[in-house]
Amino acid sequence: MAFDFQRHTGEFEAREAANAASAGEPVAQAPVGERLQQALIRIQPIVGERHIVTDAGGVEERGRVLIPAAGRAVAYVYPGSAEEVQQLVRVADELAIPLWPASKGRNWGYGAASPVRDGAIVLVLERLNRIIEVHEELAYAVIEPGVTYRQFNAYLKQHHPDLWCDTTDGTPEGSVIGNALEKGIGETPYGDHFGNLCGMEVVLPTGELVRTGGGPANLATRHTYKWGTGPFLDGMFAQSNLGIVTRAGIWLMPRPEAFCSFTFALEREADFPVIIDRLRDLALKDIIQTKVHLINDFAFLSLVSQYPFELRNGATRLSRDTIRRLAAGFGVTSWSFITGLYGTREEVRLKQAAIRRAFAPYGKLTFITDDSLRRLQGLSATLERMRQRPRLRAISEFVTRRVLRTSPEILAVAPHSHALLQGIPSDFFVGHAYFKAPSRPATDVHPARDQCGLIWFAPIAPMTGRHVGEVIALCEPLFERRGFEIYVALMMINPRSMVVLMGIFYRKDDPDETARATALYGELSDATLVAGYQQYRATVGLMPQILDTAPEFKAAAGRIKSALDPNNILAPGRYGL
Ligand code: ADP
């Protein structure tokens, strides 16, 4: 069935209103008219006029998304403290106005700072940006939701250089807590972001503030012992609409004695399943401790080049041959990955040997240390200067391609991936959202503002060559039928599961491409769910129906929702609740 982001939102609202009416429950109506006016009047003295955006232009700009459509907010409000959040929630609860919380709203490709349904007031928590505590000995920090990867990293580098925080390959301006609450994945051994949160402060939909973990107010283990006393409530606040997290503890990684990153380029595509099985084996043995980015050739093209519309030859997508030829020009094979090794010097040396044994028979392996990266950067700068001089260009090309067996484009990626694997964020990778734009900015990267089109589809599979291969085989014909090239980035979320991330890159100013992208997203979701694969994360367009295949689970979660949020004011529709 073709999927329609806008129509879908409407259907959901109608169904929910009917359900609520039959159950005799109050429903938060779209806050047009009187109740909304009243709410905004009461919100003003709480946060101050300059922290409320209601003008159409401002709301439109903040509501921009990379997906084809999302719900429209009526206002963006920027509280400055947890107490202000509590007061806002109480006003919304009293007047039955829906509130949609966002920390920074930079989850580009899933929904940014836009709600599932029209008519919500979006609470952006970016002014709550304090790093409250860093505990050196116990390697944790307590932070607020407005803290970004860039800010957190810079702070640790300056004040606690022996502690690393994790990051994503998304924007450095993303929220550390926002990403964790969406179960986002990072780059270092601490890349399970939700798994590394410990002890939260949460404002409930009725305005009370709770601290998770049980125990007394001065609980000594709040940020060191996750399970606390009694039921583990923390899980209720991830991918849900049961509370607004205003503070959380986050575990930090002690800087290892030694680190190196490494890249691998698969020689024969037929060996792909073997690579998945070898990665799992090494991860289960704790030799690889972090996410592996295993990407296909088309994904690599999106990183290092602009989409070559002129090579489509009248079709709506590039042929496999064209993709292969372009990728080969960059020295890229069908599949390649990057990851890191961590430990003592001795451990890293032994791990390198294990990696060589596992992967060298299947392709090209390159280990990169801080020292070799510096040499590589010096060399690539020299080669670049030679390339600019007509008489030396041929020598530069020969050394790059034949001696180093690489390309300037691959050399340009290395410093960014090497840094990312140490938790240092970079604008480089998120630039791929501009793949179908005329060019990509080097700084101030903001694909939502710049109207780029990208939908992330993120099914997750058990980590075997057979399962991962099955998901790709299921989805590839759907991409082809809708006239898109398949983009795949495989991410090992733990040693037993792999996210098979697929990107649908489309032009927002092209109605036909937008319609095909929308339809494809729905088809991918249907096909994978039928085959038994869930999504690790969904766009706001798909959220209302994401739990429909698990009716008992949805009903149980719904009962918790009704108990905690009797007026259904907090992010209605988020993840099907
Ligand atoms: P990022 O800026 O890191 O991409 P977002 O702020 O967009 O993260 O958060 C992703 C989603 O998670 C939001 O749309 C929101 O629904 C939810 N969320 C974010 N922060 C909070 C929070 N502090 N409390 C509850 N839910 C949150």
Overview of the molecule:
The chain is an alpha+beta fold. It is built from 16 helices and 19 strands. The two termini are 23 Å apart. The site of adenosine-5'-diphosphate has 20 residues, from strand 3, helix 6 and strand 10.
Helix and strand layout, with pairings?
Layout (H helix, E strand, L loop, with lengths): L4 H19 L10 H14 L4 E2 L2 H7 L10 E5 L4 H14 L3 E4 L17 E5 L6 E5 L4 E4 L5 H11 L3 E2 L11 H6 L15 E7 L5 E3 L32 E8 L1 E2 L3 E9 L5 H13 L8 E4 H8 L15 H10 L5 E9 L1 H15 L3 E6 L1 H18 L5 H11 L4 H13 L32 E10 L2 H17 L6 E7 L2 E10 L4 H20 L4 E3 L13 H14 L13
Parallel strand pairs: 2-4, 3-4
Antiparallel strand pairs: 1-2, 5-6, 6-10, 7-11, 8-9, 8-10, 12-14, 12-15, 13-14, 13-17, 16-18, 16-19, 17-18
Helix pairs in contact: 2-4, 7-14, 8-9, 11-12, 11-13, 14-15
The chain binds adenosine-5'-diphosphate.
The site of adenosine-5'-diphosphate (ADP) has 20 residues, from strand 3, helix 6 and strand 10.
